[in-house]
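Comment thread on ticket #2218

A.B. wrote:
> Attaching the input chain for the structure job we discussed in standup.
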Amino acid sequence: MENPTKLYLVRHGEVEEKYHRIYGGRIDMDLSDLGRRQAKALGGFFEKNRPDAIYCSSMKRALQTLEPIRNGGAVEPVILEDLREIDFGEWTGLEWDEVARRHNAEVFDWLTLLDSGEVGGAESTVALRARLEPCLERIVKTHERQSVAIVCHGAVIRSLLSILLDMPLDRLGAVDVSYASVTLVDWSPKLSVARYINHTPWESPS
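C.D. wrote:
> Ran it. Output below, let me know if you need it in another format.
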């Protein structure tokens, strides 16, 4: 692929311990101490892979992850409200295991359950895609053949991958998107290629 637009999909760092293994969604939580260290490692990664532009969710955990990535102020980030995490409705604040028991489902089935409309008050996966597609279109149009870091959330990254790779979103529920991970997709109008998924610079050399 010649001169693609490089899209670095970055998940925020680890959140406060009280929110581990729950459906956090729109809870506007902070990073944990480890999450801040992970964000610092992401900063080191992007010193070596400097993006031409940075876009970020408006939620605190994403903004806190963003700080070490900002290239010392050389790149002014664009904050997009529509990059916020999915709204889990009645699941918000519930533990993964509790939801799995209620629905007789595995943890990685959550996208299928959301897609089926079984979760009261939740944002549908169709609505999630509808708000993310304009964001993605804006980014690739504005930054053709450049590199862009998009700091956001697990469900958002899976939905962006679904759009970019033309894959059903429910198949991506089992794809691991770890805290402070980087997924790189080379985009062009005719083809998108996932170069790597779920790279964690804080665990291994970048």
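A.B. wrote:
> Thanks. Noting for the ticket: The chain has one domain: 5-199.
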